[in-house]
Amino acid sequence: MTMTFETYIAIQSHTPEHSAPISFAKGAPLLVGERYEGPEGWENWYFCETPGQAAGGWVPGQLIEYIDGKALARDSYSAQELDIQAGERLLGSKTLNGWLWCRRQDGEAFGWVPLNILRLQ
Q1: 3-state helix/strand/coil string of the chain
Q2: For 80-90, what is each residue's pLDDT tens digit?
Q3: What are the two backbone dihedrals, phi and then psi, of residue 49, each rounded to the nearest 5 degrees?
């Protein structure tokens, strides 16, 4: 399956808040905490922890499934955000709950960027 990328331009800069974002493989156990509530309108995010991670992080609700009362990861995931500057061009491929998975045009870095600071080219 080929992934389709669209070109976006950043209309403002973005700096990631976490230096060690949560990541996990499909099937990983998750401890699900609070639901995100903020002014940005980002819906369906939950603060989760998983064994082997130094800290927890925000996970899209679509990636959490409950089996026999236990929360598990439906798919592999990384909360890695991309540090970008206003005016930078990015290639975006997947949107989840107000964020877009992007890569730099040179292909050197990947990560999530808030969709509200991007404009489709």
Answers
A1: CCCCCEEEEECCCECCCCCCCCEECCCCEEEEEEECCCCCCCCCEEEEECCCCCCCEEEEHHHEEEECCEEEECCCEECCECCECCCCEEEEEEEECCEEEEEECCCCCEEEEEHHHEEEC
A2: 999 999 999 99
A3: -125, 155
**Could you tell me the pTM of the whole model?**
0.89
Return the structure tokens found at 32: 């699900």
Rg (alpha carbons) of the chain, rounded to whole number? 15
Q: Quote the CA–CA distance of 110 and 102 in Å, as a whole number.
A: 6
